Amino acid sequence: MKQLKGFILSSAWVLWIVLLIAQVILSFFLYHPAGNQAFRIVGWIIGTVAGLFGVLPMITLRKKGDVPKEKDYTHTTVLVDSGVYAVVRHPQYLSFVLLSLFLILVAQHWLIAVTGIAAIALVYTGIVPQANQVNVEKFGDDYKRYMQSVPGMNCLAGIIRLLQRRKKS
Prior knowledge:
This protein is an all-alpha fold. It has one domain (2-168): Four Helix Bundle (Hemerythrin (Met), subunit A), CATH 1.20.120.1630. It is 74% helix and 0% strand. It contains 7 helices and no strands. The N and C termini lie far apart (37 Å).
């Protein structure tokens, strides 16, 4: 548990939160109403998908993670590799990436894009590697095997691998 608290309070998390808040605030002030409508539509679709990837893990982990009643959904006691976790290992972190992409496409301003790209890079280079380390320490070899069969955040690869696994069985 001590490791998890350090993970949550790590500099990567703090910087990501600052970048996301900056991106949201900038989006309100720098929104470009005359921007490309097709990008904006794609952005809203991505935003909807981000919402799904943000909420589904809460439901899945609470339901299948053997979480004690007094704890929140992140306190799983078993490795969950079904539902959304059969497609990607880090669906909520994927939602963070998609949220930044949503803001970039909808607001359409260079400063929001730069802030969003920095936030996305931080998720990939700081937050996800820390999460993998914490989960390997928590679940051991089971998580290492899970890492080999399910991609971190690549949905397309995750769906293809899931379909291949189902085809074999």
